[in-house]
Write the structure tokens for this entry.
Amino acid sequence: MLTKRIIACLDMDAGRVVKGVQFKNLRDAGDPAECARAHARNGADEIILLDITATSNNRRTLLDAIRTTARSLFVPFTVGGGIRQLEDAAAVFDAGADKIAINSAAVREPALIGKIAGRFGSQAVVVAIDARRTNAGWEVFVAGGRVPTGRDAIQWAREAAACGAGEILLTSMDRDGTQSGFDCELMCAASEAVSIPVIASGGAGSARDFIEVFREGRADAALAASIFHFGIANIAQLKHQLQDANIPVRWPC
Amino acid sequence: MIAIVDYGAGNLNSVKKAFAYLGAEVVVTDEPGTLAGADKIVLPGVGHFSSLQALDRSGLRAVLLQAAISEKPFLGICLGMQWLFAGSDECTEISGAGIFPGKCRLFPSSVKSPHVGWNSISVQQGSRLLRGIAPDPFVYYTHSFHAPVVDATTAASEYGLRFSGAVEQGNIFGVQFHPEKSGDVGLAILRNFCEV
């Protein structure tokens, strides 16, 4: 049976993981390669590394971090942040990523999705969408959630899929950081609109939230960005709780 | 030496990296001579069945078929496994190698497509490629078309229907999933291939 994925997200700034990985067993909690390996050992089904500053100065640092992380990581590895053109994506793949995540650049130039998919396959292209609730639905924001676009998030997910995206990483800006649960309504609307997998993000506070987003939200995967802040010891424990609730998960790994 | 066939389809780094991690000597090549001289051949691949047309154009198809006939260990991964079958509905103008019967087809409309994520495989006893693997481990898949269950099927998965996760006949092996992305289980499978 196809399982629901738990994806560990590492936010990176200047070569260091900056939040969400308060691992007891790690000597150096800030090294991306070490964090990624530890998450994989604990049962993470995938790793996403997001370069949150993504300045040109940081590109070399990012590529080095991808290289060292990828060397001994044998679960799918996605990298996002600052990918604006095909060449950026090619460099990230060349360093060892399996998939890239694009957000603002895809909104600005939807054809970029097809360009990258055409060369590296749709399975390698994740379109990340930051969405905020409005009276009518959800609006797409870009530039790290700072700039509204006036675009409908569900419509954009549909268009991204049609352009060749392999997965949608959907973040509820309203729920992000609140620990009040995922926006299941948003996730469900997106999941019904596209046939490609939807990865839910924003609002995780407990194992119960994951159970809900897989059931009511119909998400195919969920991002565990900083669950370790919220009393869940690790992904292994989360997976046990999901298994007890009859959610199919990859366990034991 | 293991030769990974480069026919311009996607990113071959992950496959190369996994073999290198296992200590295997590995090259990525599109040279018929290098392929003919290699001890083992890996045909990877992601994306559309039509990308396999590059094998016909470059003359690699004959080299690969010759290798398979001569019992040189051969591993097709994902699209590389689908190539071992007669063909695919994804692109009917191109023939597969026809080593295994039947065509690759879309998943039924009762399930979302593509099939992406970790699914379990039910492993048949006696497979050399899957030797020492648990009876129903999880492996990572990402594909829209599936190969039918045939006599040579050594592992099957369920997704709307039963399909071939792994096939094996003599020294010809194929896996629809990505062993290079399937954690310790995948590494064990690649290690078995190195030791064939």
Notes: The first helix of chain A runs from residue 32 to 41. Chain A has a mean pLDDT of 90. The two ends of chain A are 14 Å apart (CA to CA).
